[in-house]
Amino acid sequence: MKPTWAERPLTSAELVEAMSVYLVTDTGMCGGPDGVVRTVAAAVDHGATFVQVRDPDMPDEDFLALAKGVVEVVAGRVPVVLNDRVHLVGASGADGAHIGQGDMPPEQARELLGPDAILGLSVERRELVEAANALPAGTLDYVGIGPVWAQQTKPDAQPPIGPDGLAELAALSTVPSVAIGGMGGPGRIAPIKPTGAGMAIVSAICAAEDPGEATAMIVREWQEATA
Description:
Shape: globular
Structural class: alpha/beta
Strand order of the largest sheet: 1-2-3-4-5-6-7-8
CATH class: Alpha Beta
CATH topology: TIM Barrel
Order of helices and strands: HEHHEHEHEHEHEHEEHH
Radius of gyration: 16 Å
CATH architecture: Alpha-Beta Barrel
Number of domains: 1
Distance between the termini: 34 Å
């Protein structure tokens, strides 16, 4: 039976824990939609704590099928959110959405999702965190901060802010945060833990020969890092 992510909204502390190893899917790196589902299954089996289904180029019909496949294989073990496609959350059975600065306004997304779904927003600069803080209470559940390091999955990304920039913005945010951008490089997990942010991973899992083992290694490194 599916746990009540939507029926019982996560507290801030629960959400922080849930975002510790936050997988963002990349269809190309996974080898296609079926590869995304297999990758998600392996990652969650080996300790991934949150999944965001992302494919900005896929038509809605195909994306909905992909999202349903991910939701089915996750089987309620961890939250699943959709990147941008707020209008597909209900039909897919996902637990919420993650939107960027160029997507629909957060207030509109919250209205479409209802009060209990998970909603995250990408922020890259101090003024964007301040704008997120100024939204009506209950609009956002978390913010994605970054890129922390240089990365290849979003060619239009802002310049990296580094661990110090992450720490500053995470402390400023009034909702939990997850670090985005270049997390998979050597030695890049330990500096994240002290900031209080979770950690979003793309290529280190999606492009791995064995996504399950790659996830297990990341989980171990996260658990061994000093807060």
